[in-house]
Amino acid sequence: MAYSDKVVDHYENPRNVGAMDKSLSEVGTGLVGAPECGDVMRLQIKVNPETQVIEDAKFKTFGCGSAIASSSLATEWVKGKTVAEALTISNTDIVKELALPPVKIHCSVLAEDAIRAAIGDWKKKNGVAETVDAATPVAQ
Amino acid sequence: MSIAIDSKLPEGVHLPIYMDNHATTPLDPRVLEAMMPYFTQKFGNAASRNHSFGWEAEQAVETAREQIAKLIGASAKEIIFTSGATESNNLAIKGIAEMYRERGNHIITQVTEHKAVLDTCKRLEKAGCKVTYLPVKADGLIDLEELKAAFTDKTILVTIMFANNEIGVIQPVEEIGKLCHERGVIFHTDAVQAVGKVPVDVQKMNIDVLSLSGHKIYGPKGIGALYVRRRNPRVLISEQINGGGHERGMRSGTLNVPGIVGLGKACELCGQEMVEETKRLTELRDYLRQKFESKLDYVHVNGNMEHHLPGNLNMSFVYVEGESLLMGINDIAVSSGSACTSATLEPSYVLKALGLGDDVAHSSIRFGLGRFNTKAEVDYVADKLIDVVLHLRELSPLYEMVKEGIDLTKIEWAAH
């Protein structure tokens, strides 16, 4: 299978790899996917409690090149956005940016889920009211 | 630019490296040389009995029959030419089921067979046959006691592969054949991966029908053969392709003379070089394995390593995903147990039959070493793969969790 240049770039030079202390109140952690399915993403955000701006993001992913690229891109995109803005990132944006083929669309869905799960975790920790569309695990 | 990159490579390494010799093999130049005259000069139809073009072609076919028979301990008259092992397997299983229908309708096979056997058996089930699919043990071998228990008075055929194409394990063929003969049951084996690689003797091993292929043994694609025993017992097979009654009436169609010449030559070379090649490939295989095991944790081999093909190594690099692994080694041709690249997204059914979890099956790579691989290539492949595994484990949340002592089986994963 041919990968797009952008997927290859994220695979070879993944952005924001790492871990944050998930016990901290400003950190939200999303862990999505399952080893049996061949994809597990962990995306973490650090949110400024005053401005609700995502100041930092980290990820680790077990999965194919497209899954790694999707989650790496997701960390780039959420950084500097407010929590509300980050929730507007959709999987189709990721598909477009990385030129993912149809068989890899599930990777982008998983990355969107990871963003939502991380924000959901942060909201829960900080008693922020849930919005309707936030942090609902997408069943498929 | 490619020259600049090449100049940095160790001596004896040219990219891309081919290490997928269970999928197919390159044609040996000596085989090509033997075939060449039969395309343009000696192009006769082996069935033309009334001129020299036909005689010449027929002579070449008979020589090839001898060469193939010699490699497996058969006689030349017992070799039937086909288009490849998929056809051989279809002809053997369907042809026996049809011929012996009055005697019974039960067939025994096992779960890690090639699809050419499994799908043929499934087709026969629809046509009224009963098929028993024996499980394999964690090492990939069948349990002979389970085979014994599976026989019924309706059993006409046991079809069990000689060596597995993914994990390289060699089934106890001789014992299987003995159990069949004690019961008057025909024994067919798909020996595509074994012929030419390890000693095969249809007499000693009690084999009645055997499938083999040209392109797995440095011969051409599009040619295969079926060995069909002529005495003790004489095995009969109903033809599946009707036509001119070629190949003792078992397989009609004009013979592929250049392909047959190539298959014969390939068999001859395998016979001459087997001892030396086995020793060399076994050493390279063990060296590759040892390099991985000395540099990486959480790696293990799949399949019984005692009863094993010389050039095969199937390893799981746990906590990294197979497709991402392949992506990092795109200048090396190997095969992954992960089927993420295929339409099904299901990992290998062979690895799953060993009891491996989907996650481990997704992390498995099959290395198929062959005649033209060098030690320098093995070093390059090992070093590159180790680098990529280390890179991907840096990225792997699973590896991090396991290192922290978290039991992954206790986590409630959100299936997606």
CATH class of the largest domain in chain B: Alpha Beta
Cα distance, first to last residue of chain B? Answer: 44 Å
Strand content of chain A: 15-25%
Pattern of helices and strands of chain A: HEEEHHHH
Uncertain residue segments of chain B? none
Terminal Cα separation of chain A, in Å?
A: 25 Å
Largest sheet of chain A: 3 strands, antiparallel
The major beta sheet of chain B can be summarized as: 7 strands, mixed
State the CATH topology of the largest domain in chain B. Answer: Aspartate Aminotransferase, domain 2
Task: Please name the defining characteristics of this protein.
heterodimer, A: 140 residues, alpha+beta, Sufe protein. Chain: A, 5 helices, B: 416 residues, alpha/beta, Aspartate Aminotransferase, domain 1, Aspartate Aminotransferase, domain 2, 2 domains, seven-stranded mixed beta sheet, 14 helices, 13% strand, globular
Topology:
The complex is a heterodimer of chains A (140) and B (416).
Chain A (H helix, E strand, L loop, with lengths): L4 H8 L14 E8 L4 E9 L6 E9 L2 H14 L4 H4 L4 H8 L6 H22 L14
Antiparallel strand pairs in A: 1-2, 2-3
Helix pairs in contact in A: 1-2, 2-5, 4-5
Chain B lengths: L1 H6 L9 E2 L10 H7 L1 H4 L11 H21 L6 E4 L2 H15 L6 E5 L4 H12 L3 E5 L9 H7 L4 E5 L13 H10 L3 E5 L18 E5 L10 E5 L28 H39 L3 E3 L10 E6 L4 H7 L3 E2 L1 E2 L12 H5 L4 H4 L2 E5 L6 H21 L1 H7 L13
Parallel strand pairs in B: 1-11, 3-4, 3-5, 5-6, 6-7
Antiparallel strand pairs in B: 2-8, 7-8, 9-10, 10-13, 12-13
Helix pairs in contact in B: 2-9, 4-9, 5-6, 9-13
Briefly, what is this?
Chain A contains five helices and three strands. Chain A is of the alpha+beta class and 140 residues long.
Structure overview:
The complex is a heterodimer of chains A (140) and B (416). Chain A has 140 residues and is α+β, with helices and mostly antiparallel strands. Chain A has a single domain, classed as Alpha-Beta Complex (Sufe protein. Chain: A), CATH 3.90.1010. Chain A is built from 5 helices and 3 strands; from the N terminus they run αβββαααα. A 3-stranded antiparallel sheet of chain A has the order 1-2-3. In chain A, strand 1 and strand 2 form a beta hairpin. The longest helix of chain A has 22 residues. Chain A starts with a helix and ends in a 14-residue tail after the last helix. About 4% of the residues of chain A have low confidence. With 416 residues, chain B is of the alpha/beta class. In chain B, the strands form 3 sheets. Chain B has a 7-stranded mixed sheet with strand order 2-8-7-6-5-3-4, with helices on both faces. Chain B is globular. The two termini of chain B are 44 Å apart. Helix content of chain B is 40%, strand content 13%. In chain B, helix 2 packs antiparallel against helix 9, helix 4 runs parallel beside helix 9 and helix 5 packs parallel to helix 6. In chain B, helix 6 links the parallel strand 3 and strand 4. Chain B has 2 domains: 161 residues, Aspartate Aminotransferase, domain 1 (Alpha-Beta Complex); 242 residues, Aspartate Aminotransferase, domain 2 (3-Layer(aba) Sandwich). At the A-B interface, strand 1, strand 2, strand 3, helix 2 and helix 5 of A face helix 10 and helix 14 of B.
